[in-house]
Design a protein that fits this description.
The complex is a heterodimer of chains A (334) and B (308). In chain A, the strands form two sheets. Chain A has an eight-stranded mixed sheet, sandwiched between helices. In chain A, strands 2-1-4-5 form a four-stranded antiparallel sheet. By secondary structure, chain A is an alpha/beta fold. In chain A, helix 4 crosses helix 5. In chain A, 33% of the residues lie in helices and 22% in strands. The longest helix of chain B has 36 residues. Chain B is globular, with a radius of gyration of 24 Å. Helix content of chain B is 77%, strand content 0%. Classes of the chains: A alpha/beta (334), B mainly alpha (308). At the A-B interface, helix 2 and helix 4 of A face helix 9 and helix 10 of B.
């Protein structure tokens, strides 16, 4: 097949476990998603649901040991990344696939100037000289709208505000025009107003480059604003996947429904918020059957023993892993 | 930065005053009469005694003696010994030896200590890491005189690689063995500090970022981890530089090196106040300068604490 015939990024049945002395922890347990060119896919889940681990597995950033990818495939335009040697996988990082981290203050090197850190991308991957690379770095900072870029190029990360720092982080990820950018909670460490600016910037840059954006977040507000499609994770598994509009309008999994009921929404003014009872399971003790059943209002005895398959609910590709998916899907919201 | 240096030098002034006064007082209150100590068992004629006591202001109260000393110090006069030699002349020869010994030890600590630490840190959990950990624990827990005599016996007497004692062969050969012995504790400490700091930094978020940029493992370590890891090590090495210059009484004794440490020891036994205080003052000065150097070096390593 020609490269164009392959989806941009395809993750299939990915399983990651951590083998420690105290036992094996399954952090990701059968995650699947597909990301297309120019699309934003949100990977939604609570902390501990395995979304960051899954992203690092795709990037090839997990330390083995203790982490082991036990099953699954990660294909970038059809090339299986997991089959690559570490050296080849490294060449993909930064050039075709890059990552934006949550807290730019700790994710940027405190002792190197911002310019050096940006220029490094051009120097290492394109063999540019220091001067040329720094000039490119200034252009890059302009591109992410950091004011007075040429003056600030020699500043250090701690001299920037939180929002500007995150722009630097974004600039670094976009330096070599990668096909896929994974943004791991890119706005969580920021003020709400700055959050909106950063998300707008990401969307703008995306429309310029047609990159595929994998947005990892627990924030339903960010998702609603930015995502084209949403994949919901619970306890290391995909529980639901749909277009953003479809998912918000007609969730097909009790967990997703619970998430939506627990946040305030303008279209549901005056209605009480309903939290999901209980807490997400520890990765070391995931319940049998459907992992959500101890917290699920719709659960029946079979949920505790039979793992529900991931089924298609609508021709538009709405999928859910629940024994009662159709029932949940068709129930009125609110 | 120069403002910072000036301010720090100003800060050093009260420290210098305090330490000299303290040492001066301590020597002053030592029991026994220094003139009588000089003469040994022989009786001293009262006229001579009075003359000497007057020359060295021994009958004046403490604070007057100290003021005399301080005015001398300000004019560059470290005082005279009771035998009439100038303290500065006495120390000049000694400093050369101590400087050679201290610097040798320090360089060994920097090079060997850091190299061992980086090696062990990168090989965490492997056999060579365990070997470094075991070896450094051993060195840290064995007293320096044991290490000294062992080194003399093995490298000096049995293998005959290096001179056993004395300074006849000059620098560097005469100073390698005592330098290594003097450095042993600090070297082991530097290795452990470098190792743990490196391991900690290898887990840092920005190291993960560096990997995500597709950099080679070597570049991630050298450019993105090492410099950050060296900050605590530099602190220790800076203090060490001051400490090693202070002379090493035990090491200089074992290897029979005529350095400042040896002099200080003898002078304390002879109650030669001017020498003890003069030496200590010089040591305090060196220590303060080493501290200042560390603070400036900090800024080079870590822009977050740069003094501009």
């Amino acid at each position: 097949m020609s490269p164009a015939a392959h989806p941009l990024l395809e993750v299939e049945d990915l399983c990651v476990e951590f083998r420690t002395r105290r036992g094996t922890i399954r952090a990701v347990n059968g995650l699947s998603y597909t990301l297309h060119e120019g699309e934003t896919l949100a990977l939604l889940g609570e902390s501990g649901s395995g979304k960051s681990v899954a992203a690092q597995a795709v990037m090839g950033l997990l330390d083995t040991p203790p982490a082991h990818i036990t099953r699954g495939a990660v294909r970038l335009r059809g090339d299986d990344l997991l089959a690559l040697s570490p050296e080849r996988h490294r060449e993909v990082r930064g050039t075709r696939l890059s990552m934006i981290f949550q807290d730019a203050l700790t994710a940027l090197n405190p002792v190197l100037s911002v310019g050096d850190q940006l220029a490094e991308m051009y120097r290492v991957h394109q063999g540019m000289g220091r001067k040329a690379a720094l000039a490119r770095a200034v252009a890059l900072m302009d591109r992410v709208r950091i004011p007075a870029a040429s003056r600030r190029i020699h500043d250090y990360p701690h001299q920037f505000s939180g929002g500007m720092r995150q722009r630097v982080m974004i600039a670094m990820a976009l330096a070599l025009d990668p096909e896929v950018v994974i943004a791991d909670e890119p706005t969580t460490a920021l003020d709400v107003t700055v959050q909106a600016q950063i998300m707008r910037l990401l969307k703008q840059l995306q429309s310029e480059t047609r990159m595929g954006l994998l947005l990892i977040t627990h924030d339903l507000g960010v998702v609603a604003e930015a995502a084209d499609r949403i994949t919901v994770m619970y306890a290391g598994r995909t529980v639901e996947s749909a277009s953003a509009d479809d998912l918000y309008a007609r969730p097909g999994h009790p967990y997703t429904r619970g998430l939506l009921d627990s946040v305030p929404r303008l279209d549901r003014l005056g209605k009480p918020l309903v939290p999901i009872t209980g807490a997400p399971p520890l990765p070391s003790s995931i319940p049998a059957g459907c992992a959500f059943h101890p917290r699920c209002p719709r659960a029946e005895p079979r949920c505790g023993s039979e793992a529900p398959p991931f089924r298609t609910l609508s021709p538009a590709g709405h999928r859910s892993a629940c024994h009662f998916a159709e029932e949940v899907h068709h129930a009125p919201v609110g | 930065m120069w403002r910072f240096v000036a301010r720090r030098l100003l800060h050093a002034l009260p420290v210098l005053l305090g330490t000299t006064f303290l040492i001066y007082t301590l020597v002053f209150v030592l029991p026994g009469d220094p003139i009588q100590g000089l003469a040994g068992d022989k009786p001293v004629p009262p006229a001579v005694l009075a003359e000497l006591r007057a020359r060295y202001h021994l009958d004046d109260p403490l604070w007057i003696q100290y003021t005399h000393y301080l005015t001398g110090l300000l004019t560059g006069d470290l005082g005279t010994t009771f035998t009439g030699r100038r303290v500065s002349d006495l120390l000049a020869d000694r400093w050369v030896v101590t400087l050679q010994l201290g610097l040798t030890a320090w360089v060994l600590e920097v090079i060997l200590g850091m190299a061992l630490g980086v090696w062990a840190g990168l090989r965490k959990g492997k056999w060579d890491d365990s070997a470094v950990l075991f070896g450094t624990t051993l060195v840290i827990s064995v007293p320096v005189f044991v290490v000294g005599y062992m080194a003399q016996l093995v490298f000096g007497v049995q293998l005959g690689w290096l001179p056993v004692a004395g300074t006849e062969e000059g620098w560097p050969f005469a100073f390698l063995l005592p330098g290594l012995v003097l450095a042993s504790f600090g070297l082991a400490y530097v290795a452990r500090l470098t190792r743990s700091s490196l391991i900690e930094n290898l887990r840092a978020d920005y190291v993960r970022t560096a990997h995500s940029k597709g950099l080679s493992g070597r570049r991630v370590v050298v450019r993105h981890t090492l410099r950050n890891s060296l900050i605590p090590v530099v602190t220790f090495l800076g203090l060490e530089l001051g400490g090693l210059m202070a002379g090493a009484i035990v090491t200089e004794y074992i290897f029979n090196l005529p350095g400042v440490g040896q002099q200080l020891f003898q002078s304390i036994q002879l109650r030669e106040g001017p020498v003890v205080v003069g030496t200590t003052t010089a040591l305090v000065l060196i220590f303060l300068l080493a501290n200042l150097l560390v603070d400036l070096l900090y800024g080079l390593l870590d822009p977050r604490i740069r003094h501009d």
